[in-house]
Amino acid sequence: MRIRVELPQVKPNEYDMPEVCPYEGCGGVYFKRHGVQGEPKPIRDLTYERVMSYRWKCLRCGKTFRVYPRGVSEAQQSDRMKATTVLLYVLGLSYGGVTDVIWALGSSVGKTTVYNNVQEAGQAARGRRRRAVRGGKKRTVIGADATYVKVKGEQVGVEVVVDDESGELLGLDIIVNENEEEVREVIEDVVEDVDAEVVISDDHGAYKETTDALGLQHQICRKHVKDNVEEVADSIREQTKRKDPKPEGLESSMERLEEDLAQLERLVAERPAEGAQQLEAFYHRYKAVPLPRPGKRHTVWVRTRLLITRLWERWGRLTLDQRREDLEMDGTNNSCERLIGWWIKERTRTMRGYKRQESIRNVVTLTARMGVQSGRYDMTELYA
User: Fold this and answer.
1) Which CA distances in Å does 65 have to 17, 121, 143, 306?
2) What is the rounded CA–CA span in Å between residue 381 and residue 8?
3) Which spans in the chain are helix H?
4) Domain of 41?
């Protein structure tokens, strides 16, 4: 994994006064210096060992408070030290590995401190995401997909929703079975805030039910369908070696079936304007194939009929991008799959798993936010 970011800087001679009194309920806006010498504050940082802090007094409530240089707070670590440990963890190091690197650089932090830094940064990233989603910007096309990660050795589902244009993470939650109710809850929360019109997903039935229930248009990822059709077609070809008997009344043959499978693959790959009509013709050719009773093995004829029927029923959703020329869609769910592949799967590849579900929400949101904006992401926003 590669992520390029800007770290917060420690500026020992620059101080930012608060706009209002930091004490809750006061609201004062006028302050005066309480003493002139200042006090040294030891910090853990890769450059500075201490900085000067100054005490100020609120003229309204009479209470005093400290003002620290930019990049420093009341915490023992500078913002730069916190961000460095977070970056090292996101790049793939374990908590223990991060402590080793920091020690080699001439400072020290404990594993628990690194863990807390990551969780706090993740919570800050989640807050930034929520504010961005609720900020009123319209996101016409969103992508949705699910993946699975381990929590204490058990597989846990993660549903994500992204802005199809920018790849920005818009929604994330833990799910159990990827059923319609769970998927709908995650997508609906995002749709209400961004006024989405189109959802791009794979062809899992939960997305069809969700988009229909929410009155949204649905684009099924054409690459996903293409890969699935090719896989099923190859499996059917392999099964033809069993010489399944041809059903009565079927006007086809094994040779014709081979040709039809190849044509179906071309149809999905090219998605011609007359695709629905071609699939209807295929359907009428194989509609004489009787469906088997529950529990019975599906013959090549049955599987071919089911494949054709499924494609015909979904053709409109597979080709929505061709009809919505006003939107910049390529018919794939690449934005969502890229986020999952790069910023979830790639990070978990170096992990034994998460300890708690809340860590998934924190780490995934943080990693996705840093990754999508790689090269222009300033980690200072996590400590503002």
Assistant:
1) 11, 25, 47, 72
2) 9
3) 79-90, 95-104, 111-133, 180-194, 205-214, 222-239, 254-270, 275-286, 300-318, 320-323, 334-340, 346-348, 357-372
4) 1-76
- The answer as to whether 90 is a domain residue is no
Q: Examine the domain organization and report whether 294 and 235 are in the same domain.
A: yes
The answer to whether 336 touches 200, Cβ cutoff 8 Å, is yes
Kindly state whether residues 205 and 228 are assigned to the same domain.
no
Phi-psi group of 367: left, alpha or beta (phi > 0 → left; psi -120 to 50 → alpha; rest → beta): alpha
User: For the chain, how many structural domains are there in total?
Assistant: 3
The alpha carbons of the chain give a radius of gyration, in whole angstroms, of 28
How is residue 11 annotated by DSSP?
E
pLDDT truncated to tens, each residue of the chain (384 aa)? 789 999 999 999 999 999 999 999 999 999 999 988 899 999 999 999 999 999 999 999 999 999 999 999 999 999 999 999 999 999 999 999 999 999 999 999 999 999 999 999 999 999 999 999 999 899 999 999 999 998 988 899 999 999 999 999 999 999 988 889 999 999 999 999 999 999 999 999 999 999 999 999 999 999 999 999 999 999 999 999 988 999 988 988 899 999 999 999 999 999 999 999 999 999 999 999 998 888 888 999 999 999 999 999 999 999 999 999 999 999 999 999 999 999 888 888 777 778 899 999 999 999 999 999 999 999 999 998
Cβ atoms of 142 and 164 closer than 8 Å: yes
What gap in Å lies between CA 80 and CA 315, rounded to an integer?
52
Residue 89, in any domain of the structure: no
- The C-alpha atoms of residue 17 and residue 177 are separated, in whole angstroms, by 50
The phi, psi pair for 57, rounded to 5°, reads -120, 135
Shared-domain flag, residues 69 and 21: yes
Q: Which two tokens stand for residue 107?
A: 């400072």
Q: What is the CATH number of the domain that holds 340?
A: 3.30.420.10
